[in-house]
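Predict structure. Chain length: 1337.
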Amino acid sequence: MTTSAHQETIPVGNGVEYDFREFRSTQKEVLNKEPCQHDHDMNRGANADCGERECDPPREAGTLKGLPAACEDSFPTALSMRLTMVRRPDRLPDEGLQEVLRGKLRVLEADSGEVTALFSELSARLLSINGEEDVIVVTFKTFEEIWKFSTYYTMGFLGQCMENLLLDQEFWLNSLEQDDPGIEVSIQEETLNLMYKGILMQEGSFFGSCSANQMFDSSTSGSDLYLEQGDIGLFEPPFMGSGWTVQSLVDGARGTKPKPSLEPVEPFHQWFLKSCPENILVGSGKLAYDFPFQFAVGACVTVVEYDACGPDELSFECGDIIQAMGLLVSCFEWFMGKHEGTGDIGLVKTCLVKPTDSLCESTDTFLNKEDRLLLNNDEHTKAETIALLNKTSKSDIGTIYKLDLIELQDPPRETNQNGPYNVSLSKREELKSKIDLILSELKGTSSLSPQEKEPCPDNNPSEPGEGDGAPCFIVHPEEDSPSPDGFISLLTFLNCRDYKEEFRTLYDHSLQFRHSLFSGHADDEELVSYLGVARETARKKRLFWAQSRVCFLLGKMCARMSKYSQARVYFEETLSVAREHFTDMLLLISIYTNLAIIYLMQKNTEKYFTVSERIAALLMGIPNYICSTEKEPDIFKYILKKAILAHNKAAEARACFLLAKLYSKLEQRQNAVPFIERLQILTEELPGACAVIPSHCYLALGKLYGEKYLPHLAMSSVRRASLNPCATLTDCLCGIGMVLENAPRLYGVGKQGVSVPTQVAPYLSRALSLATGDEDHALRHAISVCVSQLFQKHGMLGRAVQHMHALIERGPGMSLTDTTDMLIALAWLHICNRQHHQALDVLDSLLSSTPENCTTPREGVIYNLRAIALHHSGDVKQASHSYQEAIDICEEFDFRHNWAVALANFGLLCLKARAKGLAETSLIQSVEFFSELEDEDHEVNFIAVLLELGQFYIHEGQLEKGKIYYEWALLIALKLNHSECQLKATRHLCHLYRMVFPDEAQCIIYNEHMLNLVRKTGDKSQEGEILETISLLYLSLGTERAFRSALDYTKRSLGIFIDLRKKEKEAYAWLQAGKIYHILRQNELVDLYVQVAQDSGLSTGDTHFILKLLEVAGDVFFNGSREREKAVSFYRDRALPIAVKTGNMRSQLRLSNKLAELLMQLRLYGGRRHQELGPQAKRALDRSYQRKVLGDHLNERVAFHRLATLYHCLGQYEMAEHYFLKALSLCPSPLQFDEETLYYVRVYQTLGDIIFYDLKDPYDAAGYYHLALAAAMDLGNKRSQLKLCTRLATIYHNFLVNRELSLFFYQKARTFATELNVRRINLSPDQNFRSTSQYKK
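Prediction complete.
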């Protein structure tokens, strides 16, 4: 793979150019322990080979792609697919969408299970994914895989499969109003061809086409084998130094040649020819006849005189005009013609005619009046689609109360809230008037009497007429055989020259005539005996057509009983009986197909080929023929073989169509798939040959793919069919049904299933635009409701409202109940979209239309929604009244579910009004009602109420109660197996155990459960954040085992952040891993991880982020117990200069303080480091002064204290005393916290020690000790008082010589010593004591 298209160096904001390639290589070096790394490197190698293969030298003449036969390794083994986001119809790349696509590919690099499953469906094998290059690399093991893959690529399925895999559900909704964005897949077709040839060479023999006229040394006859350019043969590569071997498919002759000039036939032809039995494949006579048209219609003129050899042929004189019946195909020996002079119809040899001016190439591969539907009964009617959509979008909006959790929901996703659905006041009035008009009209129609509403029944229903079916003849046993006159009715029925519809069961392969035409026979033997007598009777009475048909039936019965020789005799007699031309062409083709199958089974290939040629001519001229035997595919394969060998694509398309129809009739639908695919490709290639509806071909494929559980291919086929500009409403409705069936299967791997996939949105939108008839009211209503629900589910509430408004403008055309439910749903949409006044308009209209003296449960639903709208519009009083109305209706009808919801809503309203007692009572009563319900429909609302009640108790400080309700909600969600509810409950518990009631172990358990839930949703970003949280929780446990677990979770989050290109998160994850390695004392990895973290941060180019990252990197060593000196370079050499350059005063102060503290603790006071201490401390003091302007006294006090400590350590005691007193002067007065008092104790004690021990001034030292003692007494710190009283006793006893005070402080010290179990108090001054000893470690 190459990276020339990407910027190799990037600016980082501080004038440094950073080499991104070096950074990525460093990342790979660090993560080389990941299991996928070996595969990734191998795939890169495969791509490199693929890239080199594109630069191969031109092929050598006379060889397969110019490569020696032994050089199989020289063929490429990997194929690169480049994915590009484009906007149709111009197919222009979109860089913004392309970056989104790259992000998806990066995520799949680490978790490629779904991609592997997709390419398995596409008959390819995934090697690697390169998100940076937008490339997916695949390979193939067999030529069949290449054939299927290339077929899907040619049909345009690859891009659509990628869209279904890579694009979010919201994409399909957003694409409705965009320029139809999509993914375009491009491959190196030359590379694919080389892979195809390489696999064929490995597999051995294959079918190839001669690329030049050439001679082969014959191995079967004395003369050489001559093949012309384009001739197809079976080639075998050289073996053990021998030459190439070829077998001609015309006569089976073989020949050899060292280096033949050939090209493999295309993959479909390869598969088909290899699947043909040898007796069909080899030996077919002349491939094509000398005729100027390949696929012609019109009239031709005879060139010789010809006498018919049978009743199926035409006799003619030289110069007679013959009109081609159907199609005249040059690769077949015969065609079906009509004599212009006599009007007779029969078979004519192609070589005996020449074209007239009216003869021309046909642009249509199908016959007039031909049924072009490949599958039967596969169209969805409007009624079926309406029922399906109503079932899919079924809602309880009109019966179940809604829980008021609007404030907890995410806001609408539309960024532009000034669209057409944010209506003005005038629009609101207009909409309200329209709703009132609709409701009044429906109310008037609903008040009609039953007699007016119900249509009058039809007193004369149509009944099928008697005797409409075919006659039925009774079969008598042989001993009771009737006289010849008893067969008259049967023979009269059969003795008809022309075809009758009643004959269909006679010719059909199912042999239904055994029971539909005949009755009274015990088994097939009795029926055969009966037909044998009927045959003899017809022969004696010279009823030739009856005799022919009876012989045909006898032949079919004998074939059924596996008496093939006897069956052949009967079929041949059927042909010989006729004395005049056949006009029942369906009988003729049925005879020929049965005969051909018997000839093939008896290995009489000569007669098989002869009869098959006639069958081909009849099939080119007879529309809607009747399948007469289940083995007919063997005959049709011969026809397709002839078309392939003659390179006649139009005939090939016709043969594929016939084979697909045949397999459909035989209920072998999956066998029809390759031929439908090939038919579709040929239909698009042939100019003007699109008379077959393309959408039907794709719909047929979609249905077959769905039956084979290939959802990606099924969805792609349906999309090509239904979204075609020429698609009809029926096509769209069929597509809707298939999408609803197959789309949920796309999310069976790694994702949570969806009930209504958004992939159906384009089909619904297209169907809505086509459903313009007055009879389509119900269809428009079902589609609009379904589309609106899709938008609502994905947070696009404005567009959901827009569709409902459009439905109202068109007029719903539904019943009063359905219209009321639709308007209730519209009101709920307005509430969710924060349009409470519009919702109130709709709800008030509904309330005004309800009967005054009759209360209904639906009225309670309206009151509940009205209360929610009033609640969020600020009218709490009116909202409480509406809730009370809703509760009263529930109590009247004893509907406990709605009662519980209304009580919960009322409780939430009371919480907003800060009536906590009433809120608690209502919520608890709601929980009691919910817990008494037995059905499962209420449990989602029950969980939400439990969480709200638990949160209420948490806020009130009743943690145990809150935890109980949280865990109750989680248990119900687990029982329900509802992932979303489990996620909500688990989040509440995680927050409880982390922020409110810290418990790391419990928090880890719930976070790991939440991690499993998030994985099912496929949200990688959230998964990475949870992994990061779990890592921090393990780190806080403080054990080595916990540290290693934290490291594992950190690395997992790091992989996700790398895939998502979240550079800041990635940098912090690298740093976190380095920190854990530092704790684990694995020093060799710490520097590496910290360095990669810096590189990742530099690649963002964000100076402020880099500053924070460098400081955190220094903190890794600063907060540790080892190698603390490494923090100096991060603070002083890297972070501090950036902070100065950017003017970040807060960071400068913090860094200066850390540097001063670090340098002091390291005891590096000599040389250059000694000179650094003062400037760093003074810098901190300067920054603190600047911060003081902003009111930050604490930082100034810290700076004074640190500077005092520095001078103390340096022995400059007067300066130390000065700055300590400055720090004390900044303390707040009066003191607010014990920590501040303790600070007074320690600082005054330190000052006393400095004055007493270092400056030798006991008088001033006693003053500081007195101040420290006063603070210690205020704090109640006995240990500090003991120490200070001892110091004061020592001073007064030894230096100030005040016996009274000395005794007083000594007695106080003894009292504290007794309480603290201190055995001895020494009043002698310690001559070795140093005041700086407190700073020593």
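Summary: The longest strand covers residues 79-87.
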